[in-house]
Amino acid sequence: MKIIVAPDPAGVAVAAADIVTDVVRTEPAAVLGLATGSSPLGLYAQLAARVAAGLDMTAVRGFALDEYVGLAPHDPRSYAHVIRTTVTEPLRLHPRNVLVPNGIADDLPAACAGFEAAIAAAGGVDLQVLGIGRNGHLGFNEPMSPFDSRTRVATLTESTRRDNARFFDSPQDVPDRCVTQGLGTIMDARIALLIATGPAKADAVAAAVDGPVTRRCPASVLQRHGHAVLVVDEAAAAELR
Description:
The protein is 31% helix and 17% strand. It is α/β, with parallel strands linked by helices and 241 residues long. Strands 1-10-9-6-2-3-5 form a seven-stranded parallel β-sheet, covered by helices on one side. The radius of gyration is 16 Å and the shape is globular.
């Protein structure tokens, strides 16, 4: 695992954007795995600035990491909406090239299988953008998720629902189920790019990097990845050995 420590979140965004930019310039039709949440927002903003300055990402394809069960794509709280407004539109990607898990399908397991099939048909993910939860989750793979799991319906822990309540009117409004790429799906990406900032993520980052590889900290599985890059600020790196 390669670790890059930047002084602050702005430096993290630049360092992460440099990695993504190199991938896109090498392969203009690169396939990106797209995390949601607050961790990658600086990266996406930095990429948007580079697109405005001339970086061409129009051929890039994307697969979102997760979605809430029960929220329609037009719902402003959905990750489909987040991806559309923070990635697809500012990076000038074609909407048909960006796929988000379907959280309102009549047959959710079939929709999950179809999402996996779409990734395979695209040739796999070249670079997967990741954040990390305070409990070590990747995507919505909560502690004790199987390392070989694929895209599936999962149940959110109460701690994750509390952390995400800031995006909803009340904690009770946060869905308790989601569709998430599995840890096995994430590990298939050719590059895994994990972004973390702030002191609240320091314990999780240390567990993922320095701790044992254990299902209690899903992100620790990245220790087994052939090309994992961790980009953190000094606050998130504070507990690293």
